[in-house]
Design goal:
This protein has 306 residues and is mainly alpha-helical. It is built from 14 helices and 2 strands; from the N terminus they run H-H-H-H-H-H-E-E-H-H-H-H-H-H-H-H.
Length: 306
């Protein structure tokens, strides 16, 4: 019976894959069709009238009438936002997860529960309070909790419209899930390994750097994939805190602005979308071999020990 199921499963998976790929293929075809063809006929007509052009990609890369700067500044902005916004929560989350897992102290479980509960808060509810916090600071009566950092020359907040604002916000929203994932993975590691290192005189910092982090690589890589893709594809947080200026805004702001009214730039929109996909695909394929191991720590530990 098992042998009879394999061809059927293969057929079903192949059919689902083809159905899932058809819209993406349609976008690719649209991105290489002339503007007049896109507006007056469907992408499937390319098989009858195979007219293709790379002008859409040239306009997106070098600039045109819509956005003269092209997509390059926004690509750089997305990298400048996504890389630190991925590294910071991983670094902080790994340290917190190690402390809860390896350092026995009273209240660790309560702290973990509070951190996990923070995932329930919708980020949309926190955007305006955070924006007000960055622009005006926060104080309880006369006691300042978060100072109002203002440039004396321009009178503008030093946190408004800067990369650091997005780094802070993305890190704050990512930390609860990051800590929970690292704790779940780290709690399944062998406790005897850490205890043996303590008996040999190793400090917590040494254990964290030389033992804990190497064993946590699958979990780190798994979260890095999700966090990088989330930050790279984010538009709401970017528009809220930095607007759509080419000096700070990510590539999603460029794509949203490029669409134009009534999708009149559909031919450019699809080309920009495929250019924006390149870097996330590189990140995913570079880390995907750790992805499955991120949920099976025992197998990775055995691989590391052999």
């Amino acid at each position: 019976m098992k042998k009879l199921r394999h061809p059927v499963a293969t057929l079903v998976v192949t059919a689902i894959t083809v159905m899932w790929t058809v819209p993406t293929f349609g976008l690719l075809v649209t991105s290489i069709r002339p503007r007049w063809e896109v507006h007056y006929s469907g992408w499937w007509t390319i098989f009858q009238n195979p007219v293709v052009t790379l002008d859409n990609y040239r306009v997106v890369l070098t600039g045109g009438d819509v956005l003269p700067d092209g997509i390059s500044p926004y690509l750089f902005n997305s990298l400048a936002i996504a890389v630190p916004a991925t590294v910071f929560p991983i670094a902080l989350g790994a340290m917190v997860a190690y402390a809860i897992t390896a350092m026995r102290f009273r209240g660790a479980t309560a702290i973990l529960v509070v951190i996990i509960a923070l995932q329930i808060i919708p980020l949309q509810m926190a955007l305006l309070p955070l924006l007000e916090l960055f622009n005006s600071g926060w104080s309880i009566g006369p006691i300042p909790i978060v100072p109002n950092l203002v440039d004396p020359q321009t009178g503008r907040s030093l946190l408004a419209g800067r990369y650091i604002t997005l780094w802070i916000v993305h890190t704050m929203f990512a930390l609860p899930l990051c800590i929970f994932l690292f704790y779940s993975f780290g709690s399944r590691l062998s406790r005897e390994i850490i205890d043996a290192a303590h008996m040999d005189g190793a400090s917590h910092f040494l254990i964290f750097r030389r033992l804990y982090l190497p064993l946590m690589i699958p979990a780190l890589a798994t979260f890095a994939i999700f966090q990088f893709l989330w930050v790279w594809n984010d538009l709401l947080i970017a528009i809220t805190f930095v607007g759509s200026s080419s000096s700070v805004a990510p590539i999603t702001a460029y794509v949203a602005y490029l669409k134009g009214g009534f999708s009149q730039n559909e031919h450019l929109l699809t080309a920009a979308a495929f250019i924006a996909m390149v870097i996330p695909l590189v990140i995913f394929f570079a880390l995907q071999r750790y992805y499955a191991r991120g949920f099976v720590p025992g197998a990775y530990i055995r691989d590391r020990s052999t």
